Amino acid sequence: MTETPEPAERRGRIAAGLDRLDDLIRHIRIFIGRYSPRVLRRAWVGAGHAINRSLPKGLLGRSLLIVVVPMLILLGVLTGVFMDRHWMLVTQRLSDAVAGQIVGLATISDNTDLTDGQRADTVAAAGRAMGLVAEIMPTSEIGRVRRSSSDIVHAMLAEGIVKRTRMPFAIRDFSDGNRIEVRMVVHGGVLKVEFARSLAYAANWHFFLVWMVGTALFLVLVSLIFLRNQIKPIERLAAAADAFGRGRPVEGFAPSGAREVRQAAHAFIGMRRRLERQIEQRTTMLAGVGHDLKTILTRFRLGLALLPDDEDTADLRADVAEMEAMLEAYVDFARGDADETPQPIDVEATIADCLRQTVEPTGRTVHFAFGGDGALTLRPTAFRRLIANLVGNAARYGRSAVWVTGERREGWLSIAVEDDGPGIPDSELEAVFRPFYRLDAARNQDVPGTGLGLAIARDVARSHGGDIELGPSPHGGLRATVRLPA
């Protein structure tokens, strides 16, 4: 049975509609995938990061940005409104008034009751009364009449003239740009009118911009002075906190600035006093404990001195010496030299002296190199203890040599101490900084020590605002890297 054409055509239209529906659904899915909330959120976050990278990082720059950007927006809006409304409106009204005067002169020149001479005199007199220079030119001057330019004053003059007359005209500027000439075909010749451009143009618009820009610059300067005075106390507070964190004396610091900044400064001063009082109490207590224990150890030494020299007394003397060394190390660790005054020292000479006193007696080979300026303000005794502990460990656990390299660059002092000993496993690199922790599995168990050397070294480094990191050395042993702010 043969299908009729109508059902086949209907099915074709249905299939075409379904295809278009599939295309629409596919485009909707593409749109949702492209502009989904996750994609938009990611784009928004990326744009925020880009803007944040381009913004000033300092508080003064950001504060000025908060002040200047709204002011620039306000100036732009005011300038746009002024140029679009006030200046354009005034210019249009001036141009329209001049156009009316020109058409009035043309109307006078078209008076047929006057002779040519009377017409010329009347037009000239009327022009002078209006502030215009007008004359009737011969008909031969018609050929000089040209089309008006695209100047805004020309356009407004032309609009005003067209509203009042259908006579052909042309407008042009003189070479100096300060005067305008209008020529119009009138009865019996060509009316030429010259006038100053200022009659049809609001020429004082730049005074508004000058005053506006000048006032804005003055306000920005005043804002800069006030913001700078408000930010200085914050900078002084940050400098005092940084100096206190590095163990340097904080001199001449007093709360100033806004109320919130003063509150933060008073809180910092109170915190500093509490910490100094706590450190002083701890130091006093430890000094007393150390004195009492040393008294007991002295009695032990006196008692051993009265005993005969034999194997038992030799072991007791060794135990007493070890106890005294442990006591000294413990007191040094607990005290931390926080009360020592920072002084200018020669870092290179200090390291070389520590190597000479600590490493050379052990017979190890010393490789020392230093680059940059070695003059730095540090706590001398604490820094010497830091270097002595590191190079002492390297000499104690190294096999043949100790490598020390120092460099001062980009505001940091870096000192690397390396040895060719057994090293430390990666899993124990942080554990060895714990007080009294000894890594007997990796180091020589027979080597004497208290387990406080690295703890004291890190404590000294952090009290100066730096730190110590441990890692493998290219020579096969341990590499200790000290970084201190310079």
Describe how the helices and strands are arranged.
Blueprint: H1 5-34, H2 37-54, H3 59-109, H4 116-130, E1 133-137, H5 152-164, E2 169-173, E3 179-186, E4 189-196, H6 205-245, H7 259-306, H8 311-335, E5 343-346, H9 347-358, E6 365-371, E7 375-378, H10 380-397, E8 401-409, E9 412-419, H11 453-463, E10 467-472, E11 478-485
Parallel strand pairs: 6-8
Antiparallel strand pairs: 1-4, 2-3, 3-4, 5-7, 8-9, 9-11, 10-11
Helix pairs in contact: 3-4, 3-5, 3-6, 6-7, 7-8, 9-10, 10-11
In brief:
The chain is α+β, with helices and mostly antiparallel strands and 486 residues long. It has helices spanning 5-34, 37-54, 59-109, 116-130, 152-164, 205-245, 259-306, 311-335, 347-358, 380-397, 453-463, and strands at residues 133-137, 169-173, 179-186, 189-196, 343-346, 365-371, 375-378, 401-409, 412-419, 467-472, 478-485.
Describe the structure.
This protein has 486 residues and is an alpha+beta fold. It is 58% helix and 15% strand. The protein is built from eleven helices and eleven strands. It has helices at 5-34, 37-54, 59-109, 116-130, 152-164, 205-245, 259-306, 311-335, 347-358, 380-397, 453-463, and strands spanning 133-137, 169-173, 179-186, 189-196, 343-346, 365-371, 375-378, 401-409, 412-419, 467-472, 478-485. A five-stranded mixed sheet has the order 6-8-9-11-10, covered by helices on one side. A four-stranded antiparallel sheet has the order 1-4-3-2. The termini are far apart. Mean pLDDT is 79; it is low at 1-5 and 441-447.
